[in-house]
Each structure stands twice: as structure tokens, then as C-alpha cells.
Design brief:
This protein is α/β, with parallel strands linked by helices. 32% of the residues lie in helices and 24% in strands. Strand 18, helix 11 and strand 19 (332-336) form a beta-alpha-beta unit. The structure holds adenosine-5'-triphosphate and magnesium ion (MG).
């Protein structure tokens, strides 16, 4: 059991939990690991040189003159360098012995599967790049992509990169309004979509939704439609084109368009957990260097690994650790179209077994769902091919970490808990497998070359305790701005301290310099003079056998300033009666202290989450304080909110 003790206050946030468990890497893993301890020392000596060394492992048309030009908040990496990312991700593999290696093993939700070798992927990308050119797309033009998780999604993004067009992927589950807003924000000229897609056995009518969006998108001149099924659609002559028809006419080779290292590669909108999504701009040379190096060392990829990152390409995780990172490393990877519980709750484990997945990367929300479904589902499958596990997206509760370690990893696989954001482009805090000892709930240490600190409001460093997470020197994959909104860029990330990046998250640091991300600063609760992070209270609750998931928000309180209101999802058919309420309140008080004793417990059949699976506490707070609901456009299932509201009003 983890030990918990009273509060130590520092910086801006109290720390309530002390997790004592620690897992050292096995000597066997260490012996074969890509990462070595010396990476930290080398990187610390000269971090710009470290990243330059990483960049030299990629293909450049023209070498850079200067590693970094930095005038906060503007960074230029690999100044004067010219490249095309697809040469690192495709061309070099064709010529260096990976021509017939599987690049992508794709499985559709209804069951079909396709394997694309590097050569096949290369040919598709070249052809589609020619299609884009035929449709008048040029370097710098914006192309919106609204596709299911099918190989053409990867082909489309890489084809844009081949000709220097800027892609913007909009998650296929978003509504017509969300698609419209993103297209118009960017002034996209072309939309790539599909007739439809599959999700949980249902058909997602992508083209229909795209048509609704396009009523109001004056900049879009053409639409390319991938035929995924036999779905009905309206075809607008002159504007709409079938992907397969265009591909038949296209030449098989498209010379890469070389761009400046600082040329924008893509714009991607954040998840919208805290408010209106921001269009984050990423550029070419630095971004590729960051995702290439982190993929190599964090996921420890070897020639015969099978890597599976379960994220949708609609999120940054899918960009960095599906499209760009693994291909830049010449890896074999799995891509899956559908839901983890279709047709049964062991679909993921079936895929792991069928393709011999060895490195698996998913999100805490998925892990908590697997826990809820029960260990008999993974128990039905041979998971012995797995050798490394990863997680990203939210703080992982120590209980969920332990479950992942024991049930999925069979206690043999290191876990990399990776902290990063759409804005950072690539992993920033992470263990190096084979090097770093892990602690459940801690993302551990900054990646080599990255410098991060915990600061207080005045920018003073907190050496042991809680405060704000801060990135104190530039990194190659850093965002170069918010599309069309310089003011929001400066205000959101660069105005808290001078020349230091503020990610918006709270964290604590322990005596071994390990970092523990505590969640968003916006979610911190001020109660009776203490500043409490939602993460610690939620993690304590999840440890109780009756609780599957929990979300904590602050509500105004006469004496304490704020009190804790807790929304809980319960195991099985349990009812939140008076007895259980009292037990849960006592449980929290005992685990982490009386100041964290919840004032209110509210039953939630499910929690409101973004479409990328993150808990949207701000909407729960709106319910608990009787406010009008804020931006709900990124909410996965609006029904959940109404159900919770009904329970709240009953209480
Ligand atoms: P928005 O910025 O629109 O509110 P978002 O922050 O959820 O949305 P993302 O960029 O997808 O959008 O998510 C990044 C955030 O996710 C981080 O700032 C952090 O709060 C959380 N996060 C990601 N990985 C981890 C992790 N390993 N541990 C803790 N928190 C994490
Ligand atoms: Mg964010």
C-alpha cells in the first residue's frame, strides 16, 4: 500500500500524497535499451548540441547554420536548414533495406486488415502528393483532413508534407460545427474525407457531416473522398472527387518539395479540456527531430518491434507517435480503426496477440475502462509479446498504474508515463526505459535536453513540494504560435514569468527530483487556506473498491472559501446510499487528511470527457455551481451531462 501523510505546503499547491513504491529496471532490459544514462550528461553539457546530434540522424537537403536562435517567446531551430520530412520517414527506408518491411498493419473495426510495406506506403504518398498538386495545392496551402483511422489518413498527412502543404487533421468524431470552425480559422483550400467510417458497429456519416460544414466554408474549393464502405452520399460535381479515381491517374513519383526548417508542417487544435481549442502551429525540422529522438529512446524501438499507439491521428499523440515518430524510425506499427470494446471488451488484447505487439502506448482513461471491464478480458489472450508499456493524456492514478503493470505487463514490462501537450509537440517528461526507476503516478524526469522546474507565483524554484510546472529552456518541437492569434499565444503561455513557458499544469517535485503532475492549475481547489489538486483526491477515491472513476471540483463555501464536490462512478450496480457516502468521505479523510474530506458526493453514471477521453472538470463545476455550461463542442457524449445534472438536482 502506498503511504500517505499530511500536507507540506510550498509554491502554490499542497501535496497530500506520498507514493513509496519504486520499480527498478531489470538488468535484462537495461542491457538492450536504446537509452543510456550518459544521454542525460551529454545533453546537460550542451543541450543545443544534443539536439543537433539528434537532427543529424535525419535526412537534410541542406545543413543548418545555427542550432538555435532564441528570443522569448520565439524560437528558431536549425536555422538555414532545408529538408522534406518524408525523406526521413519514407525515402531513406526504401533505399536502406526496409523496402519490404511492414510499415503499417491496419485493422478495420469490422475485421478486415491490410498491411502496407514501406515501399507501398511510399508509392501511395507519392501518388497522392501528385493528386494534391493536380488539384492546385501548393506549398503553404492548408488542407483539412476529416477521416476515420484508415491508412489513407497517414497517406494524406505525409502527402501534404511531401509538397510543403500544411495539414490540419480534425478528429472524425467531431461535429459539422467543429469541422467548419477549424476549416474557417485556417482558410483551408481542400478537404479530405471519407464516405463514412465505423465506430462501435455504427456508421459515422463523415461525408454527410462534411457537407453540412461546407455550407459555410467559402475557402474550400475541392473535396477528396476516400471510399471506406458502401455508404450513401451526395456527390457534388466539380467539387467532389473520389480518392481512388484520382490515384489511378496520378504519377508514381513526386519529387519532394524542400522547405525551410521553420516552415509550418501542421496546425492542430488542442483537446478543448479547459476551453475553446487553440490552433497550435508546428514547424518542420525541430518537430521531426523531437519526435524522432523521443520515439527512439522512450519507446526503445528495435528493428523487429511491433509498436501500437492507440491514439487517433485527430490528436497530437497520433501525429507524433503514429504518423511521424515511428516512420522516421522505420518501425512497424499497428493502426486500429475502431473502439476498444467492439465487438467485445477484449478487442485490444486480441490485436496485441494477433500481431505480436511488443510496445503498447495508450491513455489512462482507457486503462481505467479496462479495469472496470475486468481482468478476465486480457486474461483470455497471450500478451507475452509485450515488452514495454506507455501512457499519456492525463495524470495516471497510482492504482491504475499498478493494474497496468500487473495485469497487462505481467510485472515484466517497464511503464513509461509520458507528460507532454499538443503545444510541446513531443514527450517532455518520461522515464527512459532501462535507465530510470519508475514510481506509480510520476512521469519521473525531463527527457534529456529538456529542462523543467517547479516554480511558484514569483518564479522562484520549489525544490521539494508543489507548484507550477515550467519549461525553462527552448526545445525543438515547441509550438511556434497559435494560428492567427499572437495575443492568445503570448498571454496563455508566456505571461506568467519572463521568458519561461507555462504549460498550465500544477506539479510537485520530490527529494529525488521526480516530477508528479497534479493536473491543471485551473482545477486547483482553494479550501480553508489549502490549495488542493484534484488528482490526489481522485486517486485516493479510485483506490476504494466501490469507485471506478472520480472527478473533484471546488464549490463556494461560506467558511472554507471552497469545498470539495466529488462526482463518482461506482463499480457494478452499487448505489450511492448514505452509508457508502459516509464511508467514502471517511476514506478520503483517512487516506490524505481531513482537509480533503469531500463536502458533497454526487453519483455520475459516467464522467463528461473530451473526445480524446479527458475528464472535463470545468463542466462539472458549472453543474455544481449552477452556472450556464461553458463550451461543450469537444464533449464526447452530451447525454452524460444531463444524466449527471439530474442526479445532482436529486441530491
Ligand atoms: P486544452 O488545452 O484545449 O484545454 P488539453 O490540454 O487537454 O486541451 P492536450 O494538449 O491534448 O489538450 O493535453 C495536454 C494536457 O494533458 C497536459 O497539459 C496535461 O494536463 C495532460 N497530460 C498529458 N499527459 C499527461 C501525463 N502523463 N500526466 C499528467 N497529465 C498529462
Ligand atoms: Mg492544454
Amino acid at each position: 500500500m502506498p503511504a500517505r501523510k499530511g500536507t507540506t505546503s510550498a509554491g502554490g499547491i499542497d501535496t497530500l500524497m506520498t507514493e513509496k513504491r519504486k520499480f527498478k529496471p531489470s538488468t535484462k532490459f537495461t542491457a538492450q535499451a536504446n537509452g543510456k544514462k550518459s544521454l542525460y550528461t551529454t545533453a546537460n553539457k550542451d543541450y543545443v548540441k544534443f539536439w543537433e546530434d539528434m537532427a543529424s540522424e535525419l535526412v537534410w537537403k541542406k545543413k543548418w547554420r545555427e542550432g538555435l536562435k532564441w528570443k522569448a517567446p520565439d524560437a528558431k531551430w536549425f536555422v538555414g536548414g532545408k529538408l522534406n520530412v518524408t525523406e526521413s520517414c519514407l525515402d531513406r527506408h526504401i533505399h536502406n533495406g526496409r523496402k519490404n518491411k511492414a510499415a503499417l498493419i491496419w485493422e478495420g473495426e469490422p475485421g478486415s486488415h491490410r498491411t502496407l510495406t514501406y515501399f507501398e506506403l511510399y508509392r501511395q504518398v507519392n501518388k497522392f502528393a501528385n493528386v494534391l498538386k493536380m488539384l492546385g495545392i501548393k506549398k503553404g496551402d492548408r488542407v483539412a483532413i476529416y477521416l476515420p483511422m484508415i491508412p489513407e489518413l497517414m497517406v494524406s498527412t505525409l502527402a501534404c508534407a511531401r509538397i510543403g502543404a500544411i495539414h490540419s487533421v480534425v478528429f472524425g468524431g467531431f461535429s459539422p460545427e467543429s469541422l467548419r470552425d477549424r476549416i474557417n480559422d485556417l482558410g483551408a483550400k481542400l478537404l479530405i474525407t471519407a464516405d463514412g467510417g465505423y465506430r462501435r458497429g455504427q456508421i459515422v456519416p463523415l461525408k454527410h457531416d462534411a457537407d453540412v460544414a461546407l455550407h459555410d466554408c467559402p475557402t474550400v474549393e475541392d473535396v477528396v473522398i476516400v471510399k471506406r464502405g458502401d455508404f450513401l452520399l451526395r456527390f457534388k460535381e466539380g467539387r467532389d472527387h473520389w480518392f481512388h479515381r484520382l490515384m489511378q491517374e496520378a504519377d508514381a513519383y513526386c519529387p519532394p518539395v524542400y522547405v525551410d526548417a521553420e516552415h509550418p508542417l501542421f496546425v492542430l487544435y488542442t483537446s478543448g479540456t479547459t476551453g475553446k481549442p487553440k490552433g497550435i502551429v508546428h514547424t518542420t525540422g525541430g518537430y521531426l527531430t523531437g519526435v524522432y529522438a523521443t520515439t527512439k529512446y522512450v519507446f526503445d524501438l528495435k528493428e523487429d518491434d511491433v509498436f501500437w499507439c492507440t491514439a487517433d491521428v485527430g490528436w497530437v499523440t497520433g501525429h507524433s507517435y503514429l504518423v511521424y515518430g515511428p516512420t522516421a524510425n522505420g518501425a512497424t506499427q499497428v493502426m486500429y480503426e475502431g473502439a476498444p470494446d467492439w465487438p467485445d471488451q477484449d478487442r485490444f488484447w486480441e490485436i496485441v496477440e494477433d500481431y505480436g505487439v511488443s510496445v503498447f502506448y495508450t491513455a489512462p482513461t482507457a486503462i481505467r475502462a479496462f479495469m472496470k471491464w475486468g481482468k478476465h478480458w486480457p486474461g483470455r489472450h497471450d500478451l507475452s509479446s509485450l515488452r514495454l508499456l506507455g501512457t499519456v493524456g492525463e495524470p495516471i492514478n497510482p492504482e491504475a498504474w499498478m493494474w497496468y503493470h500487473e495485469v497487462i505487463g505481467n510485472k515484466r514490462c517497464p511503464i513509461v508515463d509520458t507528460w507532454w501537450q499538443t503545444e510541446t509537440g513531443h514527450i517532455m517528461i518520461t522515464p527512459l526505459p532501462g535507465v530510470t526507476a519508475t514510481k506509480p503516478g510520476s512521469a519521473t524526469l525531463p527527457f534529456p535536453g529538456i529542462e523543467m522546474k517547479i516554480l511558484d507565483d514569483d518564479g522562484k524554484e520549489v525544490k521539494n513540494g508543489g507548484g507550477y510546472l515550467a519549461i525553462t529552456r527552448p526545445w525543438p518541437g515547441m509550438l511556434r504560435g497559435i494560428w492567427g492569434d499572437r495575443k492568445r499565444f503570448v498571454e496563455t503561455y508566456w505571461s506568467k514569468w519572463d521568458g519561461i513557458y507555462f504549460p498550465g499544469d500544477g506539479a510537485k517535485v520530490d527529494s529525488e527530483k521526480y516530477l508528479w503532475v497534479l493536473g491543471r492549475v485551473d482545477d486547483v481547489i482553494n479550501t480553508a487556506g489549502h490549495r488542493i489538486s484534484t488528482m490526489e483526491v481522485e486517486s485516493a477515491l479510485v483506490e476504494h473498491e466501490a469507485v471506478v472513476e472520480a472527478a473533484v471540483v471546488g464549490v463556494p463555501h461560506e467558511l472554507k472559501g471552497e469545498a470539495l464536490a466529488v462526482f463518482v462512478t461506482l463499480a457494478g450496480d452499487l448505489e450511492l446510499d448514505q452509508k457508502l457516502r459516509a464511508r467514502l468521505k471517511d476514506f478520503v479523510a483517512r487516506k490524505i487528511g481531513a482537509i480533503a474530506r469531500p463536502e458533497q458526493l454526487i453519483f455520475a453514471p459516467d464522467l463528461p470527457k473530451t473526445r480524446s477521453g479527458k475528464i472535463m472538470r470545468r463542466l462539472l463545476k458549472d453543474i455544481a455551481t449552477g452556472k450556464v455550461l461553458g463550451d461543450t463542442t469537444t464533449l464526447a457524449d452530451p447525454d452524460v451531462l444531463y444524466q449527471i445534472k439530474a442526479h445532482y438536482e436529486e441530491d
